[in-house]
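Standup notes
- HV: blocked on the assembly model, inputs below
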Amino acid sequence: DTGVSQDPRHKITKRGQNVTFRCDPISEHNRLYWYRQTLGQGPEFLTYFQNEAQLEKSRLLSDRFSAERPKGSFSTLEIQRTEQGDSAMYLCASSLAVSGAGNTIYFGEGSWLTVV
Amino acid sequence: QKEVEQNSGPLSVPEGAIASLNCTYSDRGSQSFFWYRQYSGKSPELIMSIYSNGDKEDGRFTAQLNKASQYVSLLIRDSQPSDSATYLCAPRGRLTGGGNKLTFGTGTQLKVEL
């Protein structure tokens, strides 16, 4: 399977705990994105990497959230001191850094977080 | 005004009919537009992209774009029960370094009835 891979697929955690999600993009995709989707809403942009550089962060990304892509390949998204409002599906996506149709964004299967 | 507006539905159509899904957007600078399909509990799957005014056809799907009216639509011909899903409209914006930011609407839920 050469698609975007996310792990874990499901996570239940107690409020106040830290959680970390991992994303492996499509091979050779140098752009990587994190989105969050809550029930009944479309995905919302969180942050974006080009290679190992985090180039943009949404205002939605509070200081409890941190994302890394240390070697320009896989990425992690960590949520510290989780709150019930963090319950959502966290989507990772990747694309090539080219113009035109070649930079289509492909999504992974998502990581579901439930904070109890 | 929301950046991307879609009727949340559900839109119910009989099997074999044409389903028409509509989307309006506020950013006049948007140059390209994407339609994603999302089954319940699954991640979004790209089905169509459109960059120029007019129609673009791909199999049973036709995307229509009118930049002057800030309107994009998706037609699904010969609707099948397997088309039952939420359809997300997403104009593409630009990010630092040239990345692409998709701004999604809330999606329209389509139900194709037997």
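- HV (later): unblocked. The mean pLDDT of chain B is 93. The first strand of chain B starts at residue 4 and ends at 5.
- Next: hand off to the docking folks.
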